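Weekly structure sync, notes
Attendees: PL (lead), two postdocs, one rotation student
Agenda item 3: pending single-chain targets
PL asked that the sequence for the first pending target be pasted directly into the notes so everyone works from the same version. It is reproduced below exactly as submitted, 282 residues in total.
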Amino acid sequence: MITGNTQLTGIIGYPLTHSLSPQMHNAAFKALGMDWAYVPFPVKPSGLEEAVRGLRALNVRGVNVTIPHKESVLEYIGEVDETASLIGAVNTLKFEDETIMGYNTDASGCLRALEEVTSVDGSSVIILGAGGAARACAFQLAVRGASVTILNRTPERARALAEDIKGALDIRVKYGGYELIPACVEGADILIDTTPVGMYPHMDDEPLVKAELMHEGLVVYDLVYNPPETCLLREARAAGAVPVSGLRMLLYQGAEAFRIWSGREPPLDVMEKALLDALQGV
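Predicted structure, written out during the meeting:
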């Protein structure tokens, strides 16, 4: 029940019709007996500044930020943590008395999901795509000492991201187009697909990397989480590779946001079950 004491959190972006974050966070609040609620706030780009000011005026505790606002929202907040500043994008805001703090929990979510199955330090990583998720993963992995190669359908976008990393970290990142996939995957330890290929309702789209290009022990991380088992992950299983679902990053970035807002330890098992139930229509 919503009361006058209920603490509000939520998510801003556009569109938000398929977001699973409300189910995940509200289940966590309920499990811990917290009088908190998580609400989706659809915000078009033209209304972003007013939305941020309004949320603060309404004493909202914090919000997640998703497409298309992760970079543009930086203009309207007071401070950002080191990771968000480095990446140049935020996905979590915390409204404090004197300022609005921005964080990027996508980066830590990506890293935590990978470290469940492998060590990233010194590894060779191929990232497919050059958008916001690729940016968060690439910066985080480069900081950790991984050798990163970014491949994109439009090589110029991969080059731009590689140059941003070089400028910020003085770390050389390789880049190119998808024609380099076979040669790059052959020597890779980790393959991360940040593209929407295989996402609902296009689950039967052919994956960018087929089983015959993979090798045993390769960690294959698909950031698509709907469906949890994508065509790419099925190819990985067939090749003896190690599949990692995008649901892990969604879970861990959300858990870190929960911790930032509330100062409490998130109930990961409850949050994961809520995500799976939502995907299965329970």
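Discussion points:
- The longest strand covers residues 7-13.
- The CA atoms of residues 183 and 213 lie 9 Å apart.
Action: rotation student to compare against the earlier draft before next sync.
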